[in-house]
Specification:
Layout: H1 7-10, E1 29-32, E2 38-41, E3 50-57, E4 65-70, E5 74-77, E6 85-93, E7 105-108
Antiparallel strand pairs: 1-2, 2-5, 3-4, 3-6, 6-7
Length: about 110
């Protein structure tokens, strides 16, 4: 098959010759992970090569701030103020571009 043949999709594969942005991260889980830290986990987003993690400490940060770039499907954010609510959002990305951002999830830091 040609590298741009649409039949690649029929087999559940990406079209090798077509640059496609990843699908958005479907679900984000954020939970306390010790003093001043939260653990963020998510399922793999199709075509994602890496993920950009954004977080906002409510009452401290005016907006979501870029915090980490990760290839895994989990991350630990440290150095957060205890007792504060942290809001987290992920963006799946690859060499072609970025997906739309995930829904925002939040938890209270221990």
């Amino acid at each position: 098959m040609d590298e741009n043949d649409s039949r690649w999709l029929a087999f559940g594969l990406n079209i090798p010759g077509a640059g496609q942005v990843p699908e958005p991260v479907a679900e984000v889980t954020v939970r306390p992970d010790g003093s001043g830290a939260v653990r963020v986990t998510w399922p793999r987003a199709r075509r994602a090569e890496y993920y950009r993690l954004f977080a906002q400490v409510v009452g401290v940060d005016a907006e979501m701030l870029f915090r980490l770039r990760v290839k895994d499907r989990e991350a630990r954010l440290e150095g957060l103020p205890g007792g504060q609510t942290v809001r987290v959002q992920l963006v799946a990305a690859n060499g072609t571009g970025e997906a739309t951002a995930s829904e925002v999830q939040e938890c209270v830091v221990e």
